[in-house]
Every structure is written in structure tokens, then in C-alpha cells.
């Protein structure tokens, strides 16, 4: 699809950038999504562009939460749709979650384009278009969710969520799993499970853990959830960034 030499040392990063660019061209990703991508790249560079041990443990805790959930929902914005549409479909299947399109800058065109794009990549019946629910404490447009989607969810995965909305969702009592490369962002800090990793690596990693944990007992899943320490995960991520051996 694109012309990046596979032996380029920063292959994955260039591929990611191209996908975001294509997302903007297809009307899936907003221009602000380009800026978010740039921010993410900088943090990923400092992390060595790999999943740390601590981020892997967070992905495992996320998988356990999702398997225990009554009504898990994966929230998808323009960057997520451009980068990992098929991986979202796969994770949804692995944990029995619904997928909801949830945009900071909501337009009908972009909602439709993302829903279509997700369907093309195997997501059945993406939610978000009804918008008959509200997140308390946010202004009208930014508060919109589906009442029977994120509105009714007990566990939500919110990759790259805006800090304000992440806090408001947590205040609703939802167990929030945030994927964000910046451990200092309010989104990561309000999460029950912050995964400080690139969504390109994190989404398939959660799915892999979920399949591995498919047959363990509920008690074991609860044990994984109980022993996960969000503050420690954020501290470890910050430490990895500060002391990284950059190549
Ligand atoms: P705060 O959460 O403190 O309010 P913010 O929400 O204003 O900050 P944004 O720039 O809007 O910050 O959000 C983009 C976030 O998404 C950044 O923290 C960036 O590191 C992260 N990000 C961007 N691309 C990716 C990616 N591919 N994987 C994971 N995280 C990413
Ligand atoms: Mg943020």
C-alpha cells in the first residue's frame, strides 16, 4: 500500500505516519489527529519504540478486566481507526466487546466514515451514531455517547482519549483502560489501567493476553486485576523514558 523500505530502521514509525496521513485523506482522522500522532511519536522514540515489561503487565491486567466485564466497550477515534481497525475488530472478538466511535471533534461525516471503515475491517455493528446518552460534566457535543454502548459499559478501553473526557468517564464509575504514550497525560493518570505503549503494539497485545487467559478461573483473573498497580505502571513508564538507552 505504501512505499517504506521494510529494512528501514524506523520502519514501524514511518508506516504509522503514513497510515495517519491516509486517514486524514480519507476523512477518518482530523488534522488535530496529526498533531496527536506527532506527540505520540516523540514519546515512543524515548521509550525505544518497544513494549516495556511494565506496559506488557498493564496489557495483561487490561485483558483480565475485559474478560471479567459484563459490558466491555472499545472506544475508537480517528487515529485509532486509521492505525488499528482490524486489530480492534480482533480484540472485540477475543473479549466479546462492543466497538463505539467516539470523537472529540464530532462531525456526522467523520462518524460515518469511521463506522464504514471499521465495518470494512470486520467490526460488526459499530456504535456511536445514535448518541442518545451523555457523559455528565462535559459540554453538549463532547458528552455524546450511545446510551446502550459506552453509556452502559462497565469497562471501557479508551486509546488516546482527551484528558477531560477520560476523567469524566472515570467519575461515572467506569473502569477505564487508557492507552497513551504519555505517562504524564491526565488521561493516563485517570485510568484504572494505564497502558503506556503505542496502540499499534498495545491492541494486539491485549488480544494475545486475552486469548492466553481465556480458560483461567475467574479467581485468577481477579487476582491479576487486584495485583496491578496503576501508579507503579506510570512510574515505571516515566523511568523508562528518562533513562532510556536510545539507539
Ligand atoms: P491530557 O491528557 O494531559 O489532557 P491531551 O489529551 O491534551 O493531554 P493530546 O495531544 O490531545 O493530549 O492527546 C494525544 C495523546 O495521545 C498524547 O498523549 C500522545 O502521546 C498520545 N498518542 C498519540 N499517538 C499515539 C499512539 N499511536 N499510541 C498511543 N498513544 C498515542
Ligand atoms: Mg491525553
From TrEMBL:
EC numbers: 6.3.2.36
Catalytic activity: (R)-4-phosphopantoate + beta-alanine + ATP = (R)-4'-phosphopantothenate + AMP + diphosphate + H(+)
Pathway membership: Cofactor biosynthesis; coenzyme A biosynthesis
Residue numbers binding ATP: 17, 39, 180-182, 186-187, 198-199
Gene3D superfamilies recorded: Phosphopantoate/pantothenate synthetase
Entry keyword annotation includes ATP-binding: yes
Family classification: Belongs to the archaeal phosphopantothenate synthetase family.
Assembly: Homodimer.
Originating organism: Salinirubrum litoreum
Function in brief: Catalyzes the condensation of (R)-4-phosphopantoate and beta-alanine to 4'-phosphopantothenate in the CoA biosynthesis pathway.
InterPro entries tied to this protein: PPS/PS, PPS/PS_sf
MF terms (GO), sorted A to Z: acid-amino acid ligase activity; ATP binding
Top-tier EC class: ligase
Pfam families membership: PPS_PS
One BP annotation, GO: coenzyme A biosynthetic process
Source superkingdom: Archaea
UniProt entry keywords in alphabetical sequence: ATP-binding, Coenzyme A biosynthesis, Ligase, Nucleotide-binding
Protein name, per record: 4-phosphopantoate--beta-alanine ligase
